[in-house]
Amino acid sequence: MKRAHHTLMALLLAPLVAAAGAAETLATPDLPPLPMVAAAINGHPTVAGARAGINLEEANRKRLDAGPHETQLRFGTQSRRDALANRNLQEWDVLLERPLRIGAKGALDSQLGTQGIDQAKLAVGDARHEAGRALLRMWFGWLRAAAQVAQWQEQKGLLAKQAQLVGRRAELGDAPRQEQALAAAAAAQAEYALLQANMRREVAASELTSTYPQVRLPANPPLVEPVPVTQGLDFWQGRIAEHNHELGLARGEVKRRDTLAQRARADRTPDPTIGVRYGSERAGSERIVGLVLSIPLSGALREAGAEAALAQTDMASQRLAAVQRRLNAEAAATFSGALRSYDSWRQSKVAAEAMERNAQLSGRAYRPGESSLSELLAAQRLAIEARLAAALVQLDAAEARYRLLLDAHQLWDLDED
After folding, report:
1. Is residue 66 situated within a structural domain?
2. First-to-final CA distance of the chain
3. How many angstroms from the chain centroid is the CA of residue 384?
4. Which of 127, 206, 327, 359 could disulfide-pair with 50, CB 3.0 to 4.6 Å?
């Protein structure tokens, strides 16, 4: 009994343990918090519009369940002249009729209504996914601009101190005036670069917060080392195909077109109309009660409609194949980009560290006069470029991995169901 109790507890806790492990694996300190992301994506107008599409399809299902036919009431009156009696006879009749939806048409219409709602729900998921992609792109665009600001702020401070040092040395006669001008020019150039970087950051921040007002930008965004992609291409292609809403929409469209083709074939048998007629003739001296039945004769119009519906099914199947092929290509490109970005970051990190050591050596050589200021500034410029390139490639690697996770629904899985 005790062993059975432990087994039951293990089974109950297993999903929680797995979820905790997944949350630890997918720690994202360099992304906005998940509640903020959910509010931003669900509040996007395209998502709200797609959600309204569900209401539209629910109304459409009611229409399809009700059917295309309505009960009709017809009323007619006439006056007849009785020459023998030399009088006018008032006559009238009333006809109540309704077409009957026969065969499997009702079931097919109900199936079409359900399929429309399923498609609308998939459209909401696809809108969320696209909004998430745009949010991820704009977020990393702002991170890149913020990283450039941070680099140039640091460099501006270093070059300003260096310009002051060279200025004092020039006043004491330990350095030529040319070096003073060169140091001042380098400091001014760094200040200009910082101004440009601040402008780019403000533009990126404005684009992000205008599109997603729910997102709050941190004062000091973290720069986190990227995580390598461990699974192979087949895994990611399978995960992306399994959870892709666009692919689900294409598959659903094939099913819907197939149902429409069945409905068109069923419509080759016309719906009869049955009615009840009641009338008064010869000024009420005669009463008429009868049944009315009318049957349309099927012709080339209905046959052509069935053929067109079948052709549309084939078109939907080809669109599905095209979507599958494109998604596989996009998954392969995203996967390759994540791998190459990570490798590029590692190489750029090594290069930046080497350039930083070279700049430090040039600085130590300049102080006793073993090297010129131009050599020092050149080494510092190369170090700046290497650090900035490494920071940007680092963000590229992180974004590429997150894009892969997002497409595979392992990052922000915000489906309501």
Report:
1. yes
2. 37
3. 37
4. 127
Q: How many domains does the chain have?
A: 1
Tokens linked to 288: 């008429």
CATH number at residue 393: 1.20.1600.10
> Distance between CA atoms of 290 and 95, rounded to whole angstroms?
9
Question: What residue numbers bound the domain in which 148 lies?
Answer: 28-407
pLDDT in tens, 300-340: 888 898 999 999 999 999 999 999 999 999 999 999 999 99
Long-range contacts of 64-69 (CB under 8 A, 24+ apart): 64/109, 64/110, 64/112, 64/113, 65/106, 65/109, 65/110, 65/113, 67/101, 67/105, 67/106, 67/109, 68/101, 69/98, 69/99, 69/100, 69/101, 69/271
Burial of 261 per CB tally in 10 Å (0-12, 13-18, 19+): buried
Element (H, E) at 81: strand 72-82
Four-point Cα dihedral 20, 25, 31, 37, nearest 10? -40
Query: Could you report the per-residue pLDDT of 181-231, keeping only the tens digit for each?
Result: 777 787 888 888 889 989 999 999 999 999 999 999 998 887 888 889 988
**Cα dihedral sign, 66-68-69-75:** positive
* Range scoring the smallest mean pLDDT among 118-122, 325-329, 380-384: 380-384
Q: In this structure, is residue 237 part of a structural domain?
A: yes
- Whether residue 19 lies inside any domain: the answer is no
What is the tens place of the pLDDT at every residue in 30-79? 899 999 999 999 999 999 999 999 999 999 999 999 888 889 999 988 88
Assigned domain for 14 exists: no
In this structure, the number of other CB atoms found within 10 A of the CB of residue 205 comes to 17
